[in-house]
Design a protein that fits this description.
Elements lengths: L3 H22 L4 H13 L4 H8 L3 H13 L3 E6 L2 E9 L1 H21 L5 H15 L19 H9 L1
Antiparallel strand pairs: 1-2
Pfam families: MarR (PF01047)
InterPro entries: HTH_MarR-typ, MarR/SlyA-like, WH-like_DNA-bd_sf, WH_DNA-bd_sf
Protein name: MarR family winged helix-turn-helix transcriptional regulator
Length: 161
């Protein structure tokens, strides 16, 4: 059982963890990308369900969803269970946007975790999944587009092969 002392040490790390996340993921379009990811992982969803997943106010999420729809990254269709509601789905352009963002974040993580072994990264991933209550990971869509351009690090590895 975790002690208050150990939990206090974890709380002390949270600000650094958030700062590191911002540095790795960036802040431009982060809320929109997170909303897009939620729809991809759990969709098709109603806007209210996206808001629930994000623990955000419906009006905030509605603005993000509107922006994503304007950019052609999300589409909506009538909810078969309730014709008054709409269900959101990720478009092919939205999937490509997520792939592009993911490749960039993976490249930054590879740089940031230089010197870490895969076993350490896997262990951290398991622990963070356990902390967030997502372990084992939910069913995910493979964002690896085997047809698209490789990450910067994949290109370097190919050059060194």
């Amino acid at each position: 059982m975790a002690t208050p002392h150990a939990c206090a040490a974890l709380v002390d790390v949270f600000p650094d963890l958030l700062r590191t996340r911002r540095a790795l993921v960036g802040t431009q379009n982060t809320p929109a990308i997170v909303a897009l990811t939620v729809v991809l992982q759990h969709g098709p969803l109603r806007i209210s369900e996206v808001a629930d997943h994000l623990a955000l106010d419906l009006s905030t999420v509605s603005r993000q969803i509107s922006h994503l729809k304007q950019r052609g990254l999300l589409t909506s269709s009538p909810d078969p269970a309730d014709g008054r509601s709409q269900r959101l789905s990720v478009t092919p352009a939205g999937l490509e946007e997520l792939r592009t963002v993911r490749r960039a974040v993976v490249d930054r993580l590879v740089d940031h975790l230089d010197g870490w072994g895969d076993d350490e990264v896997e262990h951290l991933t398991r622990l963070l999944g356990r902390l967030t209550g997502t372990e084992p990971p939910p069913e995910t869509v493979d964002l690896t587009d085997h047809q698209s351009s490789p990450t910067r690090h994949e290109m370097q590895l190919q050059g060194n092969a």
